[in-house]
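User: Let's play a game. I give you a shape written as tokens, and you guess the letters that built it. Ready? Here's round one.
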């Protein structure tokens, strides 16, 4: 029977090891940025071998995307029984709450790096951002169906992006996530522009 203790160190496996690797990858991203992040540095920080990373992810890009996805809280399901504003507030509260829990999320650092790496940008948009924007667009489409928003033509990708952009901008300009009142004004702005 193989011992879980080797040279005085506990050998993590499965989900425990994966979480340690995710934490190491996000810490490396925050400390050195995407360009300097390596599989070697993540493995060292996680206290594991590089082979453990390559068994799960083929590249640092895949690893980082998995870590980012894992770090994001799930969005609430759309509730067809409430107003579009209430649905937007629920989604925006989760987004804002993520900033409140971690005042220096690596996702913000990554956002600035996306301008310099189009491949990474396209991958992050497809894997992380697109699903969140799609949910907001679905809320707005439902608002058209219920008459809360007047025109389907007004539902552009920019309308769905406005809420998350205002949440991040509020955080960047004040150092704090938006308050509940701020989120209400953001939801009203999105609905007014839709």
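Assistant: Ready! My guess for every position:
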């Amino acid at each position: 029977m193989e011992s879980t203790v080797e040279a005085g160190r506990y050998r993590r496996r499965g989900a425990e090891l994966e979480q340690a690797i995710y934490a190491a990858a996000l810490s490396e991203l925050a400390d050195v940025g995407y360009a300097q992040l390596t599989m070697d540095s993540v493995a060292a920080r996680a206290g594991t071998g590089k082979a453990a990373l390559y068994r799960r992810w083929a590249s640092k890009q895949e690893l980082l995307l998995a870590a980012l996805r894992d770090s994001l809280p799930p969005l609430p399901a759309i509730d067809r029984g409430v107003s579009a504003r209430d649905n937007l507030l629920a989604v925006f509260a989760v987004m804002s709450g993520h900033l409140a829990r971690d005042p220096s999320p690596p996702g913000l650092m990554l956002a600035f790096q996306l301008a310099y790496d189009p491949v990474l940008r396209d991958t992050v948009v497809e894997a992380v951002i697109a699903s969140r924007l799609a949910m907001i667009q679905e809320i707005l489409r439902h608002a058209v169906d219920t008459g809360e928003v007047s025109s389907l033509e007004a539902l552009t990708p920019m309308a769905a992006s406005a809420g998350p952009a205002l949440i991040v901008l509020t955080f960047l300009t004040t150092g704090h996530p938006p308050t509940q009142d701020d989120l209400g004004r953001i939801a009203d702005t999105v609905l007014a522009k839709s």
